[in-house]
């Protein structure tokens, strides 16, 4: 499994390479059938690789305040999304999500739960300091949604400090 | 061109149909080469169909106030995104956007400009009434981004009234 993740990362970093399940399996030295069985689709595999990368930096850095922690987290998300690899991952993540309203809410909520878990380290520390903790939906709507949608749209990135201050003002 | 749009819509509405450029061209009775030449990719074609649908309802309904106009616009976006067709279009639109940070900012900004133009009817009326007009980036970040990203993520939809009131409070 680590070999498959590693192979996917290496292919994503090679601008000339096609990132398909057969190509990833070949590079990892495993049978493509076992990759299909575990991840289902190319997008499912890349989404798993992407979230595993996010989890690697979890819990996020402790700056001593909720505002500082959120700004550091949002700034590192912006930096990550600005690289070709981060960008490819976001497209893969979105491409792996259900394409009809009815479909596959369970798979989607599993991915979302993993992303929310990454932020929980920040909120747990804020609660321990006695700070007011914002609702996860507000973090999603006010900070995460503009950062992600601006990348998907190819628009210039928002200022993470403005987004975090907006969240704390409303929270 | 209208025949190609119509054929794409009909195929998208048929759950058993594959929506490819050759299939759309066949149904429209045109040469696939001319479809490739004009739209480039399947995603480019579907994005054009999606935005043309949005433009159809433009300018948005006049309720007599900026708040009412924005709520009506956001509610109709939520309804549209909740249908299988609206959902398929959003995925196609995102799939048509550049997949590397460097790529194709011009094509992306053309799509964005068409979306912004739809909202301008609302802002022009607000300005004529003497109401304070929010910045387009704030409308994008505070209202549009959560609505669209929640659909892409398969999360339950946000309340458009909450988002619009948040925008007006901050604007």
UniProtKB/TrEMBL annotation, chains A, B:
Q: Which residues bind DNA?
A: 20-39
Query: Matching Pfam families, A to Z?
Result: TetR_C_11, TetR_N
Work out whether the entry's keyword set contains GTP-binding: no
Domain named HTH tetR-type is located at 1-57
Q: Does the keyword Transmembrane helix apply?
A: no
On the tree of life, the source organism's domain of life is Bacteria
Instruction: Cite a single GO MF annotation.
Output: DNA-binding transcription factor activity
UniProt keywords (A-Z) are: DNA-binding, Transcription, Transcription regulation
Protein's UniProt name: AcrR family transcriptional regulator
């Amino acid at each position: 499994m680590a070999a498959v993740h590693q192979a996917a990362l290496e292919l994503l970093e090679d601008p000339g390479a096609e990132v398909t399940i057969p190509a990833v399996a070949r590079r990892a030295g495993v049978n493509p059938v076992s990759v299909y069985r575990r991840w289902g689709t190319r997008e499912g595999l890349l989404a798993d690789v992407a979230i595993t990368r996010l989890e690697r930096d979890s819990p996020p850095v402790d700056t001593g305040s909720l505002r500082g922690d959120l700004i550091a987290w949002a700034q590192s998300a912006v930096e990550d999304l600005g690289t070709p690899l981060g960008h490819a991952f976001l497209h893969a993540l979105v491409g792996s999500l259900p394409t009809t309203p009815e479909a596959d809410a369970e798979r989607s909520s599993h991915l979302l739960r993993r992303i929310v878990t990454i932020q929980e380290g920040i909120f747990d520390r804020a609660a321990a300091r006695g700070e007011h903790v914002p609702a996860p939906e507000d973090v999603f709507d006010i900070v995460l949604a503009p950062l992600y949608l601006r990348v998907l749209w190819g628009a210039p990135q928002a200022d993470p400090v403005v987004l975090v201050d907006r969240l704390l003002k409303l929270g």
